[in-house]
């Protein structure tokens, strides 16, 4: 804030120098004001609404106690059915936990790892009017489901998401920071976008859609490419995009609350944030033509989300350049002349810290109202959000067209024509059930036994297979994000030369 004021004074004084940080701060404040104004119009739906629901839970591997708790809380709210889609390796422990809640809960298995394929399988098996997609580590609170379906009373609503927080946020600084980010989004971005009926990304920890919409967009969800790649990450954003483009409203239901886990290690957190950064920015560019024509406010939100890290990087790089080259106007000259030596720099640094904390506390006022003790953690929150997220966002942008699969799952469904044989197998099974689903059949005593499909695949798994070498194909469109990044940085460099 302190530097921003000094730069504005210089620019309004008629100086020819351009200050990127002034543009950065102006965008941040303008965006915050827009969110505050729009979010004040938001109201969650309160009237009860009865509708049939199917809950679909893709799962690879979860701690059994957590998964049991997840299922118990979902079952307690009596959806019409719960479908657990175990993907990847066979997992008898997860099967057993699912069996504890039969017959409301039934499980199926697909050897194809990846959430998107599991979502497709579960959706096709679902029968409810509303399909609720739930992450396997997401814990519902009392009333999550009945609150979540209330907005569907409006036939124009196609997708709804919940308010989401982090489980036990006091465990570490990482979980505390992640919970803070979630709450900020819940208090500003989500209600602002929901007031327009255009939530740009319905977060997928718990997300509900009209089943007919999912079936209508499933082919695009499973095959649509952009920049030459099928990017499996950001499935929630992709489904939200497709729902909006189909002409439906997407909204946020604040009164529906769930909790989810967060990484406890920095490396895992970085991988998670990189996956989100790639998926978010990939979908922003893919959705941009539609947003410019149908949702201009949404376009502004997501374009500034891409632009701000570049402006911040340019600002820091410019400060370094001007310090080394001794060019540009010394904004602190008056202070340094008044307080000489280290005294002067002490005042400069102190004013910068105090003004930054004051600026952030204003923009975080709703969160601080809920949790006043976080005021004393603001400097750490600012540093982590700035210097941890900025490089990840930049890296995610330039690498958005590099890989097509799920970032942490080998062999995941990759979408596109090269997977037509796989999809033909999935779709050719009798009764519409994919052939790779390992369903259970009861024996004479009512116990679940393996199907012939399971036995055959188990036998095949024990036979050593000859590895088939794969050749990575060059994707020339992967250079597009690099070109955009270079162009943006080149434009920023003009401000310093």
Annotation keywords:
8-stranded mixed beta sheet, two-stranded antiparallel ribbon, alpha/beta, 497 residues, globular
Describe this structure in words.
By secondary structure, the protein is an alpha/beta fold. It is 53% helix and 12% strand. It contains 19 helices and 10 strands. An 8-stranded mixed beta sheet has the order 3-2-1-4-7-6-8-5, sandwiched between helices. Helix 3 (64-75) links the parallel strand 1 and strand 2. Helix 11 crosses helix 19 (479-493). The longest helix is centred in the middle third of the chain and has 30 residues, at 296-325. The two termini are 25 Å apart. The model is unreliable at 404-467 (pLDDT under 50).
Strand elements, count: 10
Sheet with most strands: 8 strands, mixed
Which residues form runs of ≥5 with pLDDT under 50?
404-467
**For the terminal residues, how far apart are their CA atoms?**
25 Å
Question: What string gives the helices and strands in order?
Answer: HHEHEHEHEEHEHEHHEHHHHHHHHEEHH
Supply the number of helical segments.
19
Strand order of the largest sheet: 3-2-1-4-7-6-8-5
Overall mean pLDDT score? 82
Computed over alpha carbons, the radius of gyration is: 25 Å
Q: Specify the structural class.
A: alpha/beta
């Amino acid at each position: 804030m302190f530097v921003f004021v000094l730069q504005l004074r210089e620019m309004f004084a008629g100086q020819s120098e351009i200050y990127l940080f002034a543009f950065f701060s102006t965008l941040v404040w303008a965006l915050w004001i827009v969110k505050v104004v729009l979010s004040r119009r938001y109201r969650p739906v309160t009237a009860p609404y009865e509708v049939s629901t199917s809950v679909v839970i893709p799962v690879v591997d979860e701690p059994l106690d957590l998964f049991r708790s997840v299922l118990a809380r979902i079952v307690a709210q009596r959806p019409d059915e719960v479908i657990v889609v175990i993907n990847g390796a066979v997992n008898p422990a997860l099967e057993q936990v699912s069996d504890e809640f039969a017959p409301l809960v039934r499980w199926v298995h697909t050897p194809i790892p990846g959430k998107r394929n599991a979502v497709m399988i579960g959706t096709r098996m679902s029968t409810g009017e509303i399909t609720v997609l739930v992450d396997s580590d997401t814990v519902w609170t009392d009333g999550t489901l009945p609150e979540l379906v209330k907005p569907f009373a409006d036939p124009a609503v196609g997708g709804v998401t919940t308010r989401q927080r982090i489980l036990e946020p006091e465990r570490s600084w990482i979980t505390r920071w992640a919970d803070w980010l979630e709450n900020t989004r819940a208090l500003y971005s989500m209600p602002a976008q929901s007031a327009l009926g255009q939530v740009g990304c319905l977060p997928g920890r718990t997300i509900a859609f009209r089943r007919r919409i999912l079936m209508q967009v499933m082919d695009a969800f499973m095959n649509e490419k952009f920049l030459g790649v099928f990017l499996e990450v950001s499935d929630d954003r992709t489904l939200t995009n497709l729902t909006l483009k189909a002409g439906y409203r997407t909204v946020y239901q604040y009164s529906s609350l769930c909790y989810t886990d967060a990484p406890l290690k920095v490396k895992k957190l970085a991988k998670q944030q990189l996956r989100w950064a790639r998926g978010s920015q990939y979908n922003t560019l893919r959705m941009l033509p539609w947003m410019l024509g149908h949702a201009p406010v949404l376009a502004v939100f997501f374009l500034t989300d891409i632009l701000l890290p570049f402006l911040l990087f340019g600002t820091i790089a410019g400060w370094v350049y001007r310090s080394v080259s001794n060019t540009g106007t010394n904004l602190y000259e008056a202070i340094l002349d008044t307080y000489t030596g280290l005294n002067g720099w002490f005042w400069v640094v102190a004013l910068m810290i105090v003004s930054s904390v004051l600026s952030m506390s204003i923009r975080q006022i709703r969160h601080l109202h809920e949790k006043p003790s976080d005021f004393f953690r603001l400097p750490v929150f600012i540093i982590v959000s700035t210097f941890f997220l900025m490089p990840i966002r930049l890296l995610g942008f330039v690498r958005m067209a590099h890989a097509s699969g799920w970032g942490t799952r080998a062999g995941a469904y990759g979408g596109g024509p090269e997977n037509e044989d796989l999809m033909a197998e999935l779709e050719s099974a009798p009764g519409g059930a994919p052939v790779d689903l390992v369903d259970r059949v009861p024996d004479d005593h009512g116990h679940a036994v393996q199907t012939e499909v399971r036995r055959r695949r188990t036998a095949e798994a024990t036979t050593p297979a000859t590895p088939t070498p794969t050749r990575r194909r060059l994707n020339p469109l992967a250079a597009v994000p690099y070109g955009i990044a270079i162009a943006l940085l080149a434009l920023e460099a003009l401000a310093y030369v």
